[in-house]
Each structure stands twice: as structure tokens, then as C-alpha cells.
Amino acid sequence: AQSVTQPDIHITVSEGASLELRCNYSYGATPYLFWYVQSPGQGLQLLLKYFSGDTLVQGIKGFEAEFKRSQSSFNLRKPSVHWSDAAEYFCAVGAYGGATNKLIFGTGTLLAVQP
Amino acid sequence: NAGVTQTPKFQVLKTGQSMTLQCAQDMNHNSMYWYRQDPGMGLRLIYYSASEGTTDKGEVPNGYNVSRLNKREFSLRLESAAPSQTSVYFCAVGGGPVTEAFFGQGTRLTVV
Questions:
Q1: Between these two residues, B1 and A93, which has the higher pLDDT value?
Q2: CB distance B1 to B26 below 8 Å
Q3: Which residues of A touch B96 (CB under 8 A)?
Q4: Residue A106: alpha-carbon gap to chain centroid
Q5: Between chains, do B56 and A90 touch, taking CB under 8 Å as contact?
Q6: Cβ separation B42–A96 shorter than 8 A
Q7: Average pLDDT for residues B54-76, to the nearest whole number?
Q8: What is the pLDDT of residue A97?
Q9: Which of A7, A23, A64, B33 has the fewest Cβ atoms within 10 angstroms?
Q10: A53 vs A26, A47, A66, B68, B98, CA distance in Å?
Q11: Do the bridges between strand B74-78 and strand B101-103 make them parallel or antiparallel, or are there none, so unpaired?
């Protein structure tokens, strides 16, 4: 069965420090992978996505993620965190085929940014 | 363009009451989804509809029913609300191969 694991429930970083949020997936075929961000009281906004090709993908707000098939991982990174990055981050895998068209989410990582 | 519109934004129900959450899109996507979000559990798929006229169960369908009224609208019904259904509900569209999912702003439901 398809699944997504985000091992870190809560992370605190200092403003200006680098960030890496972990994501591991389980999926039998080539995965479609996404990172979403949710600010308090808001819906989810797409940060970036991987469908195929270059395994390092760039997203909005200075985020990037690297797909590593051998590790079943799709970790999100940012070289220098800003206070406005404080939010909850969700990794997701798309499961598609036939009549199936599902997007499965991890449990999220809550990011706090210290001044 | 409104994108994905959910109504209502907030609702308080008494145990046993029924209600329908509405979702409408103007993005012309075939796929539509209902998720619930609970602290520490991420977003869990309740039901989805890959195309007009089809619906399928997700991870947590018990206590819910859905209707894909047409390509634009996908409603979620709670026939007899329970406190365990207190949650934030999100409708999403798209999410098929090559494209991402787009989310509504959510409905915060409290069942007392």
C-alpha cells in the first residue's frame, strides 16, 4: 500500500539557518511526489513537485527537494530560513492508475523559526 | 476565478444532526477529493472522485457519504454527526498525473 512517512513531528531552527525536512514514501511504481505548506488557518499551497527527470527540483519561496529512489526519500531543503517560513509542511505521494487517482499525505512537520 | 470554494467555513453541530459540506471548482479538473485534518494525523482521505459519476472510498470513509453532482461539485454528507467527526475538512481538486492538487480553504466542524 502507498504511504508517506515524515519522521519529524516538530522542528525548530534559527532564522538564517539551513533546513532539511525528511520524507520517505512507499510506492510500487514511479512516484509522483509533492511538498505542500500550510500556514495557520489556511489551506495547503504547493511548494514543489517531482514527476520525472532531474531529481533535484526547485520550488517557490527558495525551497528545493531531492528525489532519491534508492532511499525512497524526497527531502525538502532551504539554505536560509526566514521567519515567514514558520508553518506546517506536508509531503505527499500521488497514486495513479486505472480508476485510481489518489493523493496520500504524511502526518506533517511543524516548523518553528527562532529569531 | 475562485478556484476551489468550500461552504460553510465554520459549523457547530449537535451529536446526531446531519449536514452537507459543499465543494465547487471552476478549474475544470476531473478529480476531486475530501480530506479531514486532525492534529498529529496529517490529512486523511475520506472519499475521492476520479471523474464525474464515480466515487471511491479513501482511508476513513465510515460515517460519511459523498455525491459527485457534476464535474464542478462534490459534496460530503454527515448523516448522524459524532464528536469523533470534529475536524477540519478540506476539498481538493486535480492531483492527477502531471498536475498538483489545489485545495479549498477548509471547513472547521465541531460536533458537541
A1: A93
A2: yes
A3: 94, 96, 101
A4: 9
A5: no
A6: no
A7: 94
A8: 66
A9: A7
A10: 19, 18, 11, 35, 12
A11: unpaired
CB neighbourhood size of A3 (10 A): 13
Residue with cell 498538483: B100
Least confident interval from A8-22, A46-60, A93-107, B35-49: A93-107
Do residue A99 and residue B56 have CB atoms under 8 angstroms apart?
A: yes
- What DSSP designation does A84 have? G
Helix (H) or strand (E) holding B58: none
Cell of A44: 495547503
Residue A32 to residue B50, Cβ atoms within 8 A: no
Please report, as a single letter, which amino acid is at residue B90. Answer: F
Name residues whose C-beta falls within 8 Å of residue A41's C-beta, 6 or more positions apart in sequence.
Answer: none
Average pLDDT, chain B: 92
